[in-house]
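Regression check, zinc ion case 325:
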Amino acid sequence: MSGERRYLAFDIGGTKIASGVVSLPSVDSLAQPVVADVETIPTLADRGGDDVRERLVEFAVRRIERCAHDGVDIVGVGIGSAGVVDSVSGVILSATDLMPGWAGQHITAAVGEATGLPVHMVGDVGAHGIGEALYGAGRGYPTMLSVGVGTGIGGAVVDHGRLITGAHGVAGHVGHMPHGLGVGMRCSCGTTSGHIEPVASGTGIADLFESRRPDDVAPAANAAEIARRAAAGERYAVEILTMSARALGECLAGMGNLIDPAAIVLSGSVVNAGEVWWRALREGFVDGALPLLRSTPLLRGRLGGSAPLIGAAAAFAAYPDIRHS
Ligand SMILES: [Zn+2]
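Current build output:
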């Protein structure tokens, strides 16, 4: 016997809902999880939260029936969802305008009732963090800060395989760390008082580039183009990318000083921005970190797009005390 157990995992985002059958090896083994039979449906978030919940439940029932038909034994259902999640009640506490009516949805109760299986739900960023912590770049580091730098900036603190969620489920919101570089730039949370996300996410790098762009510098379509131009040595692109990454590094140092993680794992499209970005990130981190923390490894995530599904399954396995059915 391999000791592997199979879970049905869901990753609920603003544009699509992905599902896969995840086989988790024991955390102590060196084996990797396997994600099989991945299927996605569109979220169609503009139809409202009730509609999304109903179609999620239908999707889950269909997936479970398929597993039964194929003789795949499913231990439980792990869900990672967009929005702020209360894992204990299984309810979405808040969601952005991209998912109207998603807040207030009783997701785990609905899925548990329809499938007859135990269910555990975490936030999608938390799922990603647990996946990287237990089976990705954070493997072997008991306390880890996971940071996703893409369209926005999210994060999760994983301590011995479990999330530190805080009093309101909000812990780990790296993007809303204060930084002077963000003053005057509008954050996705609405503030212009200076958060890091509007100057260090993918869209933030592009906005920072445009906000200071001299007349003789060509506009840039996105952060990937800015990274390419920086790699080619264009001075203004190097300057902006360095400024942005350095500021993010300083924020990570602040979070590091608070929680003292054994490693910081970075994922998302912006981690592909090249050596200019990584060097400035590390410099900013070292400048802001307390002496004992300066050697904390800043690592690139390893699981890529599989991280949320693996993490949702791993979160189910990590919380035998919090399950709904
Ligand atoms: Zn903010």
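Comparison notes: DSSP finds nine helices and 14 strands in the chain. The radius of gyration is 20 Å. No diff flagged against the previous build.
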